[in-house]
Amino acid sequence: MIRVLLADDQTLVREAFAMLVESAPDMAVVGQAATGRQAAELARSARADLVVMDIRMPDLDGIEATRLIAADDDLAGVRVLVLTTYDTDENIVDALRAGASGFLVKDTRPAELLDAIRTVAAGEALLSPGPTARLIERFLRSPSAPTAAGPECLSEREREVLALVARGLNNTEVAEALGLSPLTAKTHVSRIMGKLGARDRAQLVIVAYESGMVTPGSL
User: Where is the HTH luxR-type domain (predicted)?
Assistant: First the structure.
């Protein structure tokens, strides 16, 4: 059973998400938070497996709440799935770098949200495919965007795997693209994360783009 915490400052949105999550036989809502600070506190007390986090909330926004959760060793197993209205939010990359395991736009279909929760809870990263290229492109154009060291420590095969992960492919899709077994692809991803010190696949995406290894035009 996936224990889900819902964090959104709009009561109607939270209640709608709660009804959807509770309709799934493999999920349960263990708490609701109206602010980022409440989300960070409830993630611990409610023993959540995953937090569905809105970015824009009072008291403490979703990015800072995500950073608090990711920095807490006792919450190492808690994943954060950020929900955003893409047209207005400029902070998705900051959320991923703060420790979120993925993001999804709010106008996604109900079944896709449930699938996203399962994907992130299983330890995979999830990025809404439509806005990803535009989002990263805007980030790279920003003069304040940090420059990370390139993944020089990776082997040629690992660099190929990283490039595919940065495009949002899961392990099975990476395996098919490179003619590998899913287990081998998973092993490569785990080794890449270890070499780069990445918390999860979402951070691998940031490394790939910041290093210039993958560019929006190559998507």
Answer: 147-212
